[in-house]
Amino acid sequence: MRLDPFSDTYCSDPAKTWKRILGFEGRQVLYDPDLDVWLIAGHDNVRAALTDARRFSNAATLAPLRPPSDAAATILSRFDAPDVLVSADGAQHTRIRAIVRAVFPQASVQVHQVWGALIAEHTSRLVDQLAGHESADLMRVVATRLPLLVIVDILGLPTDGKALPGSADGFASLVWGDFGAFAQRQAAIELVQLWRYCRDSVIARAATPDGGDGLIGELLRHRDGDDARLTLDELAALVLNLIVASWGSTSGALGHALDHALADPHRWARLADDEHYLATHVEESLRHSPVIDGWLRLTTTDVTLDGVTIPAGSRCLLLIGTANHDPRVYATPGRFDPGRAWLSQHLSFGAGPHYCIGAALARLELTTVLRALARRLPHLRLAGGYQRRFRPNVAVRTHISLPATGIAGGCPQGHDARTRSPQ
Q1: Pick the CATH number of 8-405 from 1.10.630.10, 3.50.80.10, 3.40.1190.10, 2.160.20.10
Q2: Cα-based angle 264, 268, 272 (whole degrees, multiple of 5)
Q3: Which of helix, strand or coil describes residue 9?
Q4: What gap in Å lies between CA 32 and CA 113, rounded to an integer?
Q5: Where do the structural domains in the chain lie, given as residue ranges?
Q6: pLDDT score, position 167
Q7: pTM passes above 0.70
Q8: Residue 193 vs residues 80, 145, 149, 231: alpha-carbon distances, Å
């Protein structure tokens, strides 16, 4: 079985590939010789692998799917960030995650109380900047910018984010994409620069009396100068993890949610004032179009899953897209239906010990943006002739662009941007 993740089909309509894999000879654990990975498909199989961190290690998660060019490999040898969240295992992951949980709100109500006003303020400013334009690329102007503005503000970094080198897309393409040698080299340079920026920022903040504002300050105060509790490099790697994960995944999720909303004027109208529909629209968008639709793991021992034995030391690609489109869990999975049953069973934020720590934050960003845009720009529509296209990638599904029109017909005045507290 071949996934063909860089094919035209997968880059325009990945659900066709998920359906093909789910229906392949009744087997859902398959070997792909082109990628040299085991494909794990289906809701139960993917969930089993996600929750079994002992036998399915994260050691391969950030290892490039394909060997980098010699020039890129030389540059990447200078990337010496320690494993903290995404690529950590065992006691290291448990220790670091406990530290993050102590300072990073995760419950929906708490996230709203701590960061709701900040997200609403950034959203209002972006919508104001759209006003007066007839058309715009919503990926570039809104979806990519908002998560960056939010996460650098939360961390306590310069709030415009302009000091950050590189992009989340560049990082994702370097690790899971299909870059040529020159683009690989550039992405590797940007990754090393971003890592050094994070480390330099943390070291500078550590030299201040109280660590300063934001999450970086809170982590420094939690560290209390004790390397046994948390080293400065580990703290900097946490900052890097949070920037890349929050920026890239939330940006992609915003693109998907906007795409689904703007595909139907009735959906767009309901988002403005129907809070229940707003929440279910976001959830169905996450299920139907997961940003992280594949995740790499490495088997630490022989593993038998769905009757198939995967040898120890094998790379496995957990196909989250197939889990969310498994017809045994979701009837007519290819249909976008915010009213469907079992919506909360999707695996877009993972499962088990590595469940996304920023899930509630991402949901709040999505609902805030959709509500604000639908209220201010009721005539917003996808541009005529728009054709959906995603960046070539094995693991991260993001729109290349999302052109929209009808902006100039919106309300010129800003409304109360404060989000409502979750029920």
Answers
A1: 1.10.630.10
A2: 165
A3: helix
A4: 46
A5: 8-405
A6: 65
A7: yes
A8: 12, 20, 19, 20
